[in-house]
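User: Hey, quick favor. My workstation is busy. Could you predict this chain's structure for me?
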Amino acid sequence: MAVTSNQWGRVEDDGTVYVRTGEGAERAVGQYAAGSPEEALAFFTQRFEALAAEVELLEGRVNAQRMAPQEATESVRSMRAQVTEANAVGDLAALGARLDALGPVVALQRQAKKAEDARRVAETVQAKEALVAQAEQVGAGTDWRGGGQRLRDLLDQWKALPRLDRRTDDALWQRYAAARSAYHKARKVHHAEMDEKRAGARVVKERLVKEAEALSGSTDWGPTSGKYRDLMRDWKAAGPAPREVEDTLWQRFRAAQDVFFGARDAANAEQDKEFAQNAEVKEALLVEAEALLPITDLDAAKKSFRAISERWDEAGKVPRDRIKELDGRIRKVEQAIRGLEDEQWRRSDPEKSRRADGMVAQLEAAITKVESDLEKARAAGDERKARDLENDLASRQAFLDMARRASADYSR
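Assistant: No problem, here it is.
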C-alpha cells in the first residue's frame, strides 16, 4: 500500500522509492528509511533537480560551442546513461529528450569544425607553399649577402605554422631543403670564384703599384699624366684584391701618384709665375681689341684685329687659370667681326637678292588682282565675298611689306 506519491514517483510503506518511467511503468530507485515518505520523495526529487542542472549546464556548453564536437558527443552519451539509470524522481524522459536534441546540434558543429579544419589546412598548405616558393626564389638568386638570413627567416615562419599530414608536409619540406641546399652550394662556388678573382686582382695591382712608383719621379708631365690615367683605369678594371692587402696596395698607388702630381703642380705653379707677364701683355691687347666694338668700319676693324692677333700669338702662354677668361674675351671680338662679314655676304648674295625681288613682283601682281576682284564684289553688293577679299588683301599686303624689307636688305 503506497503511503504517498507525486506526478513522477511514489514511496511504499517500507521506504522503497519508485520513479515512473512511462505510462503504467515504474522503476525502483532506492529505499529511504531515515525519514517520512515525503522526505524520501523530496530527497530523490533533489537528485533529479541536480541531474537536471547538469543537463542544463551541458546544454549551455554545447550550444555555446565551448566543447569540441568529440568531447560534446562523449559528454552527451555519458549524461544520457546517467539519466537512463538515474536513482532520482522526476521527468527523466524529458531530460533524455533534451539530451537527444543535442545530437543534431553536435552533428552540425562537427560538420562546421570539419569545414574549419579543412580551411585551416588549406591556408597552411598555401602559406607553406608560399614560403617554399620564396625559398626557391632565394635559392635561384645571387643575393649572397642577405640570402642566408632570408632563408633563416623563412624557416622561422615555417616552424610557426601547424603541421600538415605527413606526406604533404614532407613534400613541401623537401622543396624548401632543396632550395636552401642549392643556395648554399651556389654561394660557396661564388665565394670560391671571388677568392680566385681577388687573388688575380692582387697580382695585377701589385704590378700597377710598381709601375706607378717607377713613374713618380718623372718630369715628362704630359705623357706621364696620361700613363697615370691608364694605370687608374687598369686599377679599377682589376677589381678588388683580398681585404688584407687592398688598402695597403691602394695607399702605395696613391702615394706614387701624389708624388708625381705634387711635383707637376709645383712646376706648373712656377711656370705660371713666368706666364703672369704674358697675361699682362694680353690684357693690354684686349683693351685695343675691345675698343673696336661696336664695329663701324669692317675693313679697318679686320686690319686692326689681324695686327692684334699677331701680337697676341707673340705674347706666349698665360697662367692656366687665366686661359679661359682671356681667350673668351678675344674670341668675342673675333666673332663680332666674323658675324658682320657673314651678314654682309648674306646681304650681297645675288641669288638671294633675285629671289627676294621675284617674290615682291609676284605679291604685287597678286595684290593687284585681289584689289580688282574686291572692287567687282563691292559693285555687285556681295558683302561676304568682299569681306573675304579684304582679309586676303590685308594678309598679302603684310607679306609684301616683309618681302620688300628683305629685298632692300640684299640691295644695300
